[in-house]
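Example (one chain per record):
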Amino acid sequence: MTTSKITKISKKIPWLAGVFGAQLVLAVVLFNVQHRQPTANNEPLLTFNKATVDTVEITSGEEKIELRKKDGQWRIGDSLPIAETRLNDLLKEVEGLRGGWAVAKTGDAAKRFEVADDKFKRKLRLLSGDKEVGVLLVGTSPSFRQTHVRKQGDANIYSVKFDEFSLTTEQDSWLDTELMRPAGEITAVQFDGHKVEKVAGHWPAKTPDSVAGDATKEEGAASAEAVVATEGNADNAAEGDKTLKFDSAAFAKALGDITVLGIAKNQADLDAPVTQDVNAQDENKVLKIEWTVTTDKGEFSYQLLSKNEQYYIRRSDINETFRLSKSQYDALAKVQDLRQS
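Predicted structure:
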């Protein structure tokens, strides 16, 4: 090898070493950048045991509602039963929330997305006894069915699939709308001194004698007789040629199908003045129809109320009045036909 070639190679060595060094530095930088990128959070936002949660508190602005579990039943506060399926669905949905990638984590962002401790759209608080087991702050919606949320105590803000309106503070939204249905199998109905009873599992239909005949055939009894009588006047039950106007089976079905619309807001206005005569009712008077239902679980006294084309129902063991649809009111008001049977 000539001296000139050696000299040229010697001059290239420092340059090649510099290129190699630069490549090494770049490789190290890229490696560090790749391994320092944040990873998506696939852990549950709230970790809790649904079976032990006994209080669910929802806050929206100045409004708040508490759902409490007592003696195995969920209620609004300590009073009315709730639709437990809806609550179970909510807890299941919250339990399944995953953060994914955090969209922000600063205090300013928390206020902007309305998930700050002192500025939020909705707040869900879960308790087990006196112990707080999870708090979720729910804020703005960046897109349809997406909502900004933040776990209290964690700076990270996430965008998740969640409907903020599932966290409602309206009592009617949580109410068990079937709560006015009588518990147990209905066996008798009494109205204004008139009473109709089931015999051998059947309600009277057409005439008392025809029902008694059907019961005799099915049960093998010698003289089963359906009772449709005015109290103190059992002779009415024996009038075989008398057609019943009151459809007791249809009325029992109407009772079993009662579905209220919600809690009456003007309950004090329904207490007086009242009348039981539809012909005496005016815009200032409440029409009241009262009857008693007997089941294998006990006795329940009902009141059906109407005023200014608004309809309501009460039951003696529940300290509230509830709104009712006109179609259900009309079906229940047929109890008055018992007077003519």
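Caption: The longest helix spans residues 3-36.
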